[in-house]
Write a structure and sequence with these properties.
The complex is a heterodimer.
Chain A lengths: L4 E2 L17 E7 L2 E7 L5 H8 L18 E4 L2 E4 L12 E3 L1 H4 L7 H8 L9 H14 L5 H7 L11 H22 L3
Parallel strand pairs in A: 2-6
Antiparallel strand pairs in A: 1-2, 2-3, 4-5, 4-6
Helix pairs in contact in A: 3-4, 3-6, 4-6
Chain B lengths: L14 H4 L15 E7 L5 E7 L9 E5 L1 H11 L29 E2 L5 E7 L2 H9 L2 E6 L6 H6 L12 E9 L2 H7 L2 E9 L11 E7 L4 E6 L4 H12 L6 E4 L16 H13 L3 E4 L2 H7 L6 E9 L5 E13 L7 H9 L8 E10 L13 H19 L3 H8 L8 E6 L5 E4 L4 H12 L1 H13 L3 E13 L5 E7 L5 E5 L8 H13 L6 E5 L16 H28 L6 E4 L2 E4 L2 E7 H7 L36 E6 L5 E13 L6 E11 L6 H21 L29 E5 L22 H13 L5 E2 L3 H12 L7 H4 L6
Parallel strand pairs in B: 1-12, 8-29, 10-11, 14-15, 20-21, 27-28
Antiparallel strand pairs in B: 1-5, 2-4, 2-6, 3-5, 7-15, 8-13, 9-10, 9-12, 13-14, 16-17, 18-26, 19-20, 19-25, 22-23, 23-24, 26-27
Helix pairs in contact in B: 6-7, 9-10, 10-18, 12-13, 14-15, 17-18
Classes of the chains: A alpha+beta, B alpha+beta.
C-alpha cells in the first residue's frame, strides 16, 4: 500500500497548480491484485481501470455520477468511479465486476442476474452488480421494497427494473443457500 | 426426443460474458487509438465566419485539427466525398424540401451541438484541451424553436425553405367531408406531445483501423446497422465495398437512435484513421448525445371526429404538425407511421390525415422506440376517450364497439404504410385481447374501487389504451447456418443486436430446426464479414425477419444433412429425423449417424488433418463413377437463405393503468400497470416480457418525466442525467402481463415483433388515467406535478371543462 507518488517532473514545492502533463504513479489493489499506473492527476478512476489497467467491465454511462454504470467497490463500498480521480484512491482496494466472479465461478449476484433476466444490453449491469453485491452483504434478507430501494440509484434503459429487483432478491437467496451449504453437514 | 426450445423461457447465452465484464462494447477496444473531440456549435442558428485553431497547436499531444475546408481539400486530392452533404437515407415523394447537414459544418449551423471542428490527439483528454482552444466566430441568426414557431414561419431554419415545411402528406380514405357532415355527433381535440429521446446507456462510438498493406478499413461502430454503415463508409471514402468491414460489437442499447447513419463521426473517424495511418476512436459523452444525436415525439395535433349515438366512429379527420429538427437524414418515416398507425384496432368509415413535417433549430428527429406510434395512439385514444365521455359510455365498451373483428382479417385500411406497401392487418383478435385485459385488471371492480376512492376524497383514476403495431418490415434479412465437423452449429445473420437476446432466441430457432442442443449453437450478428447482406435492427423486425431467415437456412441444412445421412445409412431421407445432434431412422434409433459425421462427409477431402476428417478422404468415401461433389451441390454442411416479407405483420396490445395523484403536491403515483400483448407465438417468453417491461419503463418516463427543455434561443437546458429525468427503479411500477398468441399467416414461424410494444400506448394511457383521477381533460403530454398543479388551478378557475361523468354520475359499466 502506498500513496500517489509524483514522478518526474516533481510537483513544484508550494505550488498549487499541477501541469496537466505531469504524471503520478498510482499504486492500488484491484480485485486483490497489486496494480500500478502512471497517470496525470486529472485522470478519472474509471479511465485508469478501463484504459490503463484494461479492466473494461466497468462502464461509463454519463460521466457525471448519475447513472451508476461505473460503480465499483472502494474498500468494499460502492463508489462512482467517474467522479473519482485515480490519484485519490492510491493505496486503497478497488473491486470491479471482473473481481466479483468469472463465467465458471459466478458471484451470487452475477448468477442471479442471469437467472432472472436482470439484464438486456448489459451496459449498465456492472454498476448494478457491484452495488447489489455490497447491498446483499449488508442486508442478506431484503424485502422487495428494500431490494428496489437498493437499486434506485442506478439507471437502466432496457429492463424496466422488474427483473433487476427480482435479481436482488434471488442474489440474497443464493448467498444464503451457499452459506448454508458451507455451514451445513457435508 | 429433443425438447422443443421454441416457446421456452431459456436463459440467455450472452449473459455469462455480460455479467462478468468480459463482453466487449465499443470503448472496450482500441486502447491505443488516438482520441477525438469535436468543437460543436454553441448556437442554435448561426453562420460560421471564422475558425482560428492556432491556440490548439500549443497542446502537447495534438495530432490534427480538421475543418470543413480540410474535407474539401481531401476530396479533391483523394477522390473521397467526405465534404458532401450527408445522405438522405429514405427519400419519399412527400419530402419536397429535404435538407441534410455536413460531417463538419460548412458555413451555417442549425442546432446547438452540430459538429464544426474535429480535433485528434493522443487521447480524449488532450483532444478536449485542444478543442477548448479553437476559436470559432459566428454571426448569429434568429432560431426557430418549437413546432408552433416553425408553423408560424415568422423565421426560417433554412433560408430556401420559407415556410419551414420539409414534407407534406395527405392520405384520404372515403368521403370524409360528407360522412362528417352527416354524423349525428362531432367533437374536436387539440393535442400536444413533447420531445423525448432514445437515450441508450451507451452513447454512440466509432473506432477505425486502416490497413495500408492491403488498403482495407475495419470499422467498429455502436450501430443498429453495420452493413449500411459499411456501405456508407465505402462510398464516402471512395473505397470498394470489399475493402471495408464494419462490426457492431456489443451495443449498449439503441432504441432507434443508432439506426441513423452515417453519423458525421462514422464518416470522419475512418477518414482520419486512413489519413493519419493510426487507429482512431471517438466515444460520445453524455452531453454530446443529448445535443448531437437525435430526439423524437414532438407533434401538435388537431382532430375532428364524427360518430353516432352508439359511439361508432364514422369519420376521423386528423391534422398534425411534426417537428423534424434541423435536418431530415432519415426522411419522414416518423410522421408516416403516426398517420398510418393512428387507427389502431378501429375502423372509421372515412379517414383523412394531413401532416406537415417542419424544420426547427434543434437536434434532428429520427425514430425512437415506437417511432411515431405513441403520438398516433395518443391522438386516437384521446379521441376514443372523448367520445366515451361525451356519451357517458364505459370506455372499454366504446372501444369494443369500434374494433375490427377477427372475421374481418386480413383488414385493409387502404392506406400506404412506411414500407410503401398497403396497410393490411394480417391477424389479431382485438375483442379477445380486451377481454383478457379486463380480466387481468378486473375492470369493473377497479373502476368501482377508483370511484369509491374518489368519493372518499382521493384522486384515483384508471386509463386504458389500445394499439396496433406494424412489425417485421422488409426488405429482407438473411442467415448463414453451418454445421462444423465438431457438430457445433454456427449461425450468422447480418442485423445487429442491442440487448434483445438474439444470441439466445435465434439459437432456439436454429436448434429446433436442426435437432441439436442449444449449447451447440453459436449466433453471430452485425459483423459484415460473417454475413454481408442485411438491413438492420429497428421496427420490431429482428425476430420476424432474421428469425425466419435462420429457420429457412436451417431447414436447407437439415435437408442436406438428411440427404447425406440417407446415403450413409442407406435409408430414405424422408424416414430420418435429427434428435440431439444424431441423424437416425425414425422408429429405429439404433440406425444413426452423428450430425458431426454428416458434416465431415459433406466435404470430400484429399487430406486428413485430424481423426474425424479421415472419414471423408478419397479412398474412404464416394461413388467412383461420379464427381465427389455432385452437380448443383456444394461442399460443406451449410446453407444460406433469406426471408423477405411481402408486408409487415401486425402485433397489438392493450394497457391499463391505475394512478393516484396527490391532492397537495400533484405528484402522480402508479398503483397498477397491466399489459395484454399479442405478438403471435413467443420464441422466448422471458425475453418478450423483458422487452415489454423495458418499453413500459420508457413509456413511464415519456409520460411523466422526460422532456427536452429547449429555451427560446434553442439551448437545451437539461442536457444531462441530472436534469433529464429518466426513471429509476423507484419510478417504475411492477408490471402485470398476459399474452395472447395470434399467429401471423405471413411467415414460416408465424411470429410478430415485440420490441417496441411496451412504450407505444403510454402517453395515451397515462393521460386517460390522470384525466380520470382529476376530472378534467388532459391534452398535453408529458405531464409533471407542476403542470398538473397549474391545470388544477385553471380547472378551479373554470377555464377547464369538468368531465361530464364527474358532474353527473360516475361512469357506468
Amino acid at each position: 500500500m502506498s500513496a500517489a507518488v509524483p514522478s518526474e517532473p516533481s510537483v513544484p514545492s508550494g505550488g498549487s497548480v499541477v501541469a496537466a502533463d505531469q504524471l503520478c504513479d498510482v499504486r492500488l489493489t484491484v480485485n486483490g491484485v497489486h496494480r500500478e499506473a502512471r497517470v496525470p492527476p486529472r485522470r478519472l478512476l474509471s479511465d485508469v481501470l478501463r484504459h490503463d489497467l484494461r479492466l473494461t467491465g466497468t462502464h461509463v454511462g454519463c460521466e457525471h455520477g448519475v447513472c451508476g454504470a461505473c460503480t465499483v467497490l472502494l474498500d468494499g463500498r460502492p463508489v462512482r468511479s467517474c467522479l473519482l480521480l485515480a490519484v485519490t484512491v492510491a493505496g486503497h482496494a478497488v473491486t470491479t465486476v471482473e473481481g466479483l466472479g468469472t463465467p465458471d465461478a459466478m458471484h451470487p449476484v452475477q448468477q442471479a442476474f442471469r437467472e432472472c433476466h436482470g439484464l438486456q444490453c448489459g451496459f449498465c449491469t456492472p454498476g448494478f452488480l457491484t452495488t447489489v453485491a455490497a447491498f446483499v452483504e449488508e442486508n442478506p434478507e431484503p424485502t422487495e421494497e428494500e431490494a428496489r430501494e437498493a437499486v434506485s440509484g442506478n439507471l437502466c434503459r432496457c429492463t424496466g427494473y422488474q427483473n433487476i429487483v427480482a435479481s436482488v432478491l434471488r442474489a440474497a437467496e443464493i448467498t444464503r443457500d451457499r452459506a448454508a451449504g458451507e455451514d451445513g453437514p457435508p | 426426443m429433443t425438447t422443443k426450445l421454441f416457446g421456452e423461457p431459456v436463459q440467455r447465452v450472452e449473459d455469462a460474458k455480460l455479467v462478468t465484464g468480459t463482453a466487449h462494447f465499443l470503448d472496450d477496444i482500441g486502447h491505443d487509438s488516438l482520441g477525438v473531440a469535436f468543437v460543436r456549435s454553441p448556437h442554435a442558428h448561426a453562420r460560421v465566419v471564422d475558425i482560428d485553431a492556432s491556440g490548439a497547436l500549443e497542446v502537447e499531444g495534438l495530432v490534427a485539427v480538421y475543418t470543413y475546408e480540410d474535407l474539401v481539400a481531401a476530396d479533391e486530392a483523394e477522390g473521397s466525398t467526405v465534404a458532401h452533404p450527408l445522405p438522405l437515407l429514405i427519400p419519399h415523394p412527400s419530402l419536397h424540401a429535404p435538407r441534410t447537414g455536413y460531417a463538419l459544418a460548412r458555413d451555417e449551423v442549425n442546432h446547438v451541438g452540430e459538429p464544426v471542428v474535429m480535433v485528434v490527439a493522443r487521447d480524449r483528454y488532450l483532444a478536449e484541451d485542444a478543442a477548448e482552444r479553437v476559436v470559432v466566430t459566428y454571426d448569429f441568426l434568429p432560431p426557430v424553436v418549437g413546432v408552433a414557431a416553425a408553423r408560424d414561419a415568422a423565421r426560417t431554419v433554412h433560408e430556401d425553405v420559407p415556410d419551414n415545411v420539409a414534407a407534406h402528406l395527405l392520405q384520404v380514405v372515403g368521403d370524409v367531408d360528407a360522412v362528417m357532415a352527416a354524423a349525428p355527433r362531432r367533437l374536436r381535440l387539440d393535442l400536444d406531445v413533447e420531445r423525448s429521446a432514445s437515450m441508450p446507456m451507451e452513447g454512440k462510438g466509432v473506432h477505425a483501423r486502416w490497413d495500408p498493406v492491403d488498403g482495407s478499413m475495419r470499422v467498429h461502430s455502436s450501430t443498429q446497422t453495420s452493413t449500411s454503415v459499411r456501405a456508407a463508409v465505402a462510398a464516402r471514402l471512395g473505397l470498394p465495398a470489399g475493402k471495408v468491414e464494419c462490426v457492431a460489437p456489443m451495443v449498449g442499447g439503441g432504441f432507434g437512435v443508432k439506426i441513423v447513419h452515417p453519423w458525421p463521426e462514422e464518416v470522419l473517424v475512418p477518414w482520419a484513421a486512413r489519413r493519419l495511418g493510426h487507429e482512431v476512436k471517438w466515444v460520445e459523452d453524455r452531453r454530446e448525445h443529448f445535443v448531437s444525436s437525435a430526439h423524437e415525439r414532438g407533434q401538435l395535433q388537431e382532430i375532428e371526429v364524427g360518430f353516432d349515438d352508439e359511439g361508432r366512429i364514422l369519420a376521423l379527420d386528423v391534422r398534425f404538425w411534426h417537428d423534424n429538427g434541423a435536418y431530415t437524414p432519415y426522411g419522414v418515416i416518423v410522421p408516416i407511421i403516426t398517420s398510418t398507425q393512428l387507427l389502431g384496432p378501429y375502423k372509421p368509415a372515412a379517414y383523412r390525415c394531413e401532416w406537415w413535417s417542419l424544420y426547427t433549430n434543434t437536434v434532428i428527429v429520427t425514430p425512437y422506440r415506437g417511432a411515431g406510434r405513441p403520438q398516433g395512439v395518443f391522438a386516437m385514444e384521446r379521441t376514443v376517450d372523448a367520445i366515451a365521455e361525451e356519451l357517458g359510455l364505459d370506455r372499454a365498451e366504446l372501444r369494443a364497439r369500434n374494433f375490427i373483428r377477427p372475421d374481418e382479417m386480413p383488414y385493409d385500411h387502404h392506406l400506404t404504410f412506411q414500407d410503401g406497401r398497403p396497410l393490411v392487418y394480417d391477424s389479431g383478435d382485438f375483442p379477445a385481447s380486451l377481454a383478457k385485459l379486463k380480466e387481468l385488471v378486473d375492470w369493473d371492480a377497479t373502476l368501482a374501487m377508483a370511484a369509491a376512492a374518489r368519493a372518499g376524497g382521493r384522486h384515483v383514476g384508471v386509463g386504458l389504451a389500445c394499439y396496433v403495431e406494424g412489425t417485421g418490415v422488409g426488405p429482407y434479412e438473411g442467415a448463414h447456418v453451418r454445421v462444423e465437423s465438431s457438430g457445433k452449429v454456427k449461425v450468422a445473420t447480418g442485423l445487429t443486436t442491442q440487448g434483445q437476446g438474439h444470441f439466445t432466441s435465434f439459437a432456439q430457432v436454429a436448434a429446433d430446426e436442426l435437432g441439436v442442443p442449444l449449447e451447440d449453437v453459436e449466433v453471430v450478428t452485425g459483423a459484415t464479414r460473417r454475413f454481408g447482406y442485411a438491413v438492420g435492427t429497428f421496427a420490431s423486425r429482428a425476430a420476424v425477419v432474421s428469425g425466419n431467415a435462420i429457420a429457412l437456412a436451417s431447414r436447407k441444412v437439415r435437408e442436406k444433412a438428411l440427404r447425406i445421412a440417407g446415403e450413409a445409412l442407406e435409408a430414405d431421407p424422408g424416414d430420418l429425423e435429427i434428435v440431439d445432434g444424431q441423424v437416425r431412422v425414425k422408429g429405429s434409433p439404433g440406425a444413426s449417424i452423428p450430425l458431426a459425421t454428416v458434416a465431415v462427409l459433406s466435404n470430400p477431402l484429399r487430406y486428413a488433418f485430424d481423426e474425424a476428417s479421415k472419414a471423408a478422404t478419397q479412398f474412404a468415401v464416394g461413388d467412383a463413377s461420379g464427381p465427389p461433389v455432385a452437380d448443383d451441390e456444394e461442399p460443406g454442411l451449410e446453407g444460406t437463405d433469406y426471408y423477405s416479407p411481402t408486408q409487415s405483420t401486425f402485433a397489438n396490445g392493450m394497457h391499463a393503468v391505475v394512478v393516484e395523484t396527490d391532492p397537495e403536491t400533484a405528484e402522480i403515483s402508479i398503483l397498477r400497470y397491466c399489459v395484454v400483448h399479442d405478438c403471435g407465438p413467443l420464441i422466448n417468453p422471458m425475453i418478450v416480457e423483458g422487452q415489454v417491461h423495458g418499453g413500459v419503463a420508457q413509456g413511464v418516463g415519456g409520460a411523466l418525466y422526460e422532456r427536452m427543455a429547449y429555451d427560446e434561443n434553442g439551448q437545451l437546458l437539461n442536457a444531462s442525467f441530472m436534469d433529464f429525468l429518466m426513471p429509476y427503479a423507484s419510478e417504475v411500477p411492477h408490471i402485470e402481463i398476459d399474452h395472447l398468441e395470434t399467429p401471423s399467416p405471413l411467415n414460416p414461424l408465424g411470429i410478430k415483433g415485440a420490441g417496441e410494444a411496451g412504450v407505444i400506448p403510454s402517453a395515451a394511457v397515462f393521460a386517460a388515467a390522470v384525466e380520470d383521477a382529476e376530472g378534467f381533460p388532459i391534452t398535453k403530454m408529458p405531464i409533471s406535478p407542476s403542470e398538473l398543479h397549474e391545470l388544477r388551478a385553471r380547472h378551479a378557475a373554470g377555464e377547464l371543462r369538468p368531465l361530464r361523468r364527474r358532474t353527473t354520475t360516475e361512469e357506468t359499466s
